[in-house]
Amino acid sequence: MEPESLHPKFSQGSGAAEFDWIFSSTLTIQDFQAVAHPVLAEEIPTQSNGMWVVNPDGTMTTTYRLREGARWHDGTPLTAQDFVFAHEVYVDPGVPAQ
């Protein structure tokens, strides 16, 4: 099952999107016209750029490439593994959202 969000514990209720900006940048954002713009992502995945693929079995594969030079506050390069780790922490029922 595909996750609906990389941070489901913080994606509910009014003002939930504010957590994205308080705690961290996101891969993409939507402007007031609901147009997506890359932030940490190099570009928005689309079928035409090959980063959004609909598989024959009906599942989808979406690939995000991180913007070159994306770094943590201490200068450490941001990696895809950072997003994997964060998702694992957020969905872990043993880690409460506060």
Could you characterize the architecture of this molecule?
The chain has 98 residues and is of the alpha+beta class. The protein contains two helices and four strands. It has helices spanning 18-23, 80-91, and strands at 28-30, 36-38, 52-54, 60-62. The strands form two sheets. It has a two-stranded antiparallel ribbon with strand order 1-2. Strands 3-4 form a two-stranded antiparallel ribbon. Strand 3 (52-54) and strand 4 (60-62) form a beta hairpin. The chain starts with 17 loop residues before the first helix and ends in a 7-residue tail after the last helix. The mean pLDDT is 81.
Secondary-structure element order, as H and E? HEEEEH
Query: How many strands appear in the DSSP assignment?
Result: 4
- Portion in helices: 10-25%
Which ranges are low-confidence, i.e. pLDDT below 50, for 5 or more consecutive residues? none
- What fraction strand? 5-15%
- What gross morphology would you assign? globular
- What is the quaternary state of this protein? single chain
Helix segment count?
A: 2
Spatially, the strands of the biggest sheet line up as: 1-2
Radius of gyration: 15 Å
- The overall average pLDDT, rounded, is 81
Q: How far apart, in Å, are the first and last alpha carbons?
A: 26 Å
Structural class category = alpha+beta
Major sheet attributes: 2 strands, antiparallel
List its traits.
globular; 2 helices; 4 strands; two-stranded antiparallel sheet; alpha+beta
Record the SSE blueprint:
Layout: H1 18-23, E1 28-30, E2 36-38, E3 52-54, E4 60-62, H2 80-91
Antiparallel strand pairs: 1-2, 3-4
